[in-house]
Design a protein that fits this description.
With 874 residues, this protein is an alpha+beta fold. The chain contains 22 helices and 36 strands. Strands 5, 7, 11, 22, 24, 25, 27 and 28 form an eight-stranded mixed sheet that branches. A hairpin with a 7-residue loop joins strand 14 (317-322) and strand 15. It starts with 123 loop residues before the first strand and ends in a 5-residue tail after the last strand. One of its GO terms (biological process) is endoplasmic reticulum to Golgi vesicle-mediated transport. Residues 520-613 form the Sec23/Sec24 beta-sandwich domain. InterPro entries: ADF-H/Gelsolin-like_dom_sf, Beta-sandwich_Sec23_24, Gelsolin-like_dom, Gelsolin-like_dom_sf, Sec23, Sec23/24_helical_dom, Sec23/24_helical_dom_sf, Sec23/24_trunk_dom.
Length: 874
Amino acid sequence: MANVPHRSVNHPGTLTPLEPDRPSPQPLSHSPSVVPSPTPPRYPQAPPSFRPDHMHSPNLLSPSNGIRTGSPIPRMSTPPGPPVFNTPVKPAAVPFRTSPATPQPMGYSSATASSLPVSTPSYYSNGSSTGSQRDLPDVVRMEEPIAADSPYVLFSANKVLRQKKLANVASLGFGAIVSAGREISPGPQIIQRDPHRCLHCGAYSNPYTSILIGSGQWQCVICEKMNGSKGEYVAMSKDELRNYPELSLPLVDYVQTGNRRPGFVPASDSRTSAPVVLVIDECLDEPHLQHLQSSLHAFVDSLPQTTRLGIVVYGRTVSIYDFSEESVASADVISGAKSPSAESMKSLIYGTGVYLSPMHASLKVAHEIFSSLRPYTLNVPEASRDRCLGTAVEAALAIIQGPSAEMSRGVVRRAGGNSRIIVCAGGPITYGPGSVPHSMSHPNYPYMEKTAIKWMETLGREAHRHNTVVDILCAGTCPLRVPVLQPLAKTSGGVLVLHDDFGEAFGVDLQRAATRAAGSHGLLEVRCSDDIRITQVIGPGEEAHSETHETFKSDPAVCIQMLSVEETQSFSISMENKRDIQGDHVFFQFAFHYSDVYQADVSRVITFKLPTVDSVSAYLQSVVDEAAAVLISKRTLLIAKTQKDAVDMRSTVDERIKDIALKFGSQVPKSKLYSFPKELSSLPELLFHLRRGPLLGNIIGSEDERSVLRNLFLNASFDLSLRMVAPRCLMHQEGGTFEELPAYDLSMQSDKAVILDHGTDVFIWLGAELSADEVKSAAVLAACRTLAEELTEFRFPAPRILAFKEGSSQARYFVCRLIPAHKDPPYEQEARFPQVRRLTADQRRKLKSSFIEFDEESFCEWTRSLKVVPPEPR
């Protein structure tokens, strides 16, 4: 870290004004100048009345105002944004990790806070004030209360313990789940001018900033240094400064429109015109092919008219379909044995064929192509058929990057926005580059698999470099060699999803994969107060190299290169205290930089202030059980790479519960049992679901399926992650309403229907008594299906929705995910599942007799086996 020169100060801990002409931070320029978009602006400029007359707005595109035109991750400006959130986060110089590691010390400036003129008393230091506003007529602290809930950032606790020893208890931990969030929408949070950033650490001005209104200088909440604002923050009062969104809202979006790529011709809607290339396995048997064709026909019918589509089919060779022939399916064929040469792809792309075409011009041709596909006819087992998936993806990348004549106008257009390749696979890659032998018993299989994984990872990075996401949707019963396919999806920013067949769920995922919003060139910066250290980051990204983002004198930020920018994904950030905290608050700031689907450069800045406390009880009351459970689960699953690891991690969950009870609970008088802290009453049950569910339990038998589920969970948004850990149980009631209940087997009442939402699967269970009435059960089933579809409407991947009757073979999928509470005594059943109180004595006897006894423990039995008293339900 570079040493920051000290100013001469008369009073340590006070603010010193900077020279009035000191410029704000100026990013370096790396690329060509910005080409303004000829299309109408999606993000309207702020009206002239937005600021008082004496305030000015810098020229939007001028490099002298701090914008790096054409920079890889530009920082922009505009008014603030969406909803209100609940906590802040701050970084330290910790590398991004995809595996557990010991906390590393962060680099911070040792310089102390600057100071005010000699005559001015000390006002602000580390979040607490030692003087009043009356003492400091020139100093305004732009602080407004914010709501406790955030759609983009969720902390495991809304307060921070001051004592390092207790705050860093590893069994509970502290951290945040962070998501880039939804697309920005017009509003006061959008700012279309340059941001004011700290010259020392790079943090942004925010609602907690202290400002010298006479000179417009502001103090950074992260490093406490003073910065100039080029006179913009000169004001007569605090109310005037509130006209600046960044000083009044905890979330703002700095937006710069235009496109950094020379030669790009913006479409009327670049989101829907970005190319989608289907890469289709042709080695399918007839039943699978029929389902796939139905899904593909529905898929192209659902695409917007401006979406440009490409179709590539692979087996032993690669067929790249030409849309210039309107009445027949025509394709250029290349060998799948090796990567296509640059010369061969150049001659193909610059030829007369049209390989990417907008749907309004090619819908009929696309249907013709899908109808022309034929089932595999050779007598070769599914797993042994030659599939050159690697070569096919290379060809798809080439046609996306190369020029493609647009049939309607004949203009050459380069890909804009996030391009997407969607692979429809029915078996492993067994031919050409990136392939593995047909049989895992091959003597050289381990080496060849390692080579194939490396090749696939390189191909994924190449796709990411070209702003293309590769999603792999697999179906069927053939082993897929997931360890080989996963790196291609992961490093490109896509997902790998397994399906039972190419039917309904596959078709829904196909549509959602193509239309989901995804930004590109993503970078996440996390900054926090000097008392906090970031120890681990889990999510769809990797440590950013210094050349990919601008750096500052004493920048403590943890910088993560995001492989894709999607609302359905999140980062889990673990933190700890570096020392005992003396101040009353700690600050956290998250900055997401990315290009959105409309080709605007966005910097979404979210700032939080959390109070610090000495009281352990006050801290525990602020813990958000569900967020803490998800953070713990992600740290646990990161280690559980294999089935053996998963078994070991169950024991780790047990030890975690015991340690929390020991550190934060109390011993029961005259007993060896410990009571679990009542403030965390929901946490043990959530972790019990984790250890017995599909993520760590024995529900899933296939190692491929377990691997895919684990990778999906580690990158998933908070909502999906929570559902994957602990299922949500909804019971249908008379009148068509639904009652939410604990996910216990006591819900399996013969006259009821129950929905169980477990993230990637949704089950609908119909009791035997209800099923006997065909008319009523059909109406109830329809209501349950409608609710299940509404609950999962925007979820990606789309879950399987399975319906079955009590006693059927499929009902085991449902039963094994419910806690066997029928084994508990009646008083505990009533305390934890109050709905049973409404049952008559006869109904309770019937319910009890319907259960088959297994060796599995109930939640209460499990906690007592750990020498912990089950916490009382809230």
